[in-house]
Amino acid sequence: MRARIDATERVETLVIGAGQAGLAAGQFLSRRGFPFLILDANERVGDQWRRRYDSLRLFSPARWDGLPGKAFPAPGWDYPTGRQMADHLESYVAWFGLPVRTGTRVDRLMPAGDGSDDFVAIAGDARIRARQVIVATGATTVPNVPGVAGRLDPAIRQLHSSEYRNASQLGDGPVLVVGLGHSGADIALEVARNHRTILSGTPHGELPFRVFDTRWRARVFLPLLGFAESYVLTINTPIGRKAAARSRVVPAPLTRVRRADLARAGVEHHASRVEGA
Questions:
Q1: Would you say 251 and 181 are in contact if contact means Cβ atoms under 8 Å apart?
Q2: Which of 26, 93, 133, 226 has its CA 20 to 30 A from that of 38?
Q3: pTM reported for the whole predicted model
Q4: What is the 3-state secondary structure of 96-145?
């Protein structure tokens, strides 16, 4: 699927990113007969999911994990793994024959500057001109590494969550997990099986039920949460706009792993922020 882009290439619509949003946008463009091209920096569609830790599972059941025109190939109340989601995205491209060009990172996007409304995307030494652009690169593509990481002894094994795959990457001794978000809670729970594990991070709430273990509660409450996200917490309502602004700086509530689960696994939680070493 990878090919060199002609520096003079022109497209009607350029979609940057072949994740869920980019592929869904492409399917709607295709359905309406609009010419377009999707660019993605990964060598393979879905690699953003394949590179995550092995035990990752989606927080939403399969019935909600499909894309427009193609349901997720799993029982409705199963929770797919990250790799299953990656394969679904790849099969979605093949199913609809979407024009995706992988291995192409867009370094810069700017107005054409010739009096037109066109945009020019710079991808390496190539230039792509488009009348309209859809940016679907996601919000968490750049790892957030705290400054204290640079002050640790080089002998200490350091991994960002984007680099972590499983506990075999860790050496002997205790493990400090910095950050009580979804990834931090998942990884701390997994690592605690074989290591003394300390978790540092401020909690920001949690769901009042276990998404995976208590299926009947999930079947009742998840649709209610979905309704709230679709019709209440939107930019069209005052409460939605307030929640959107807060979501940019405050992590989401814990969904899969709760603090009680961490405590039972022996994880030592400290709400204080890591500031030095």
A1: yes
A2: 226
A3: 0.82
A4: HCCCEECCCCCCEEEECCCCCCCEEEEECCEEEEEEEEEECCCCCCCCCC
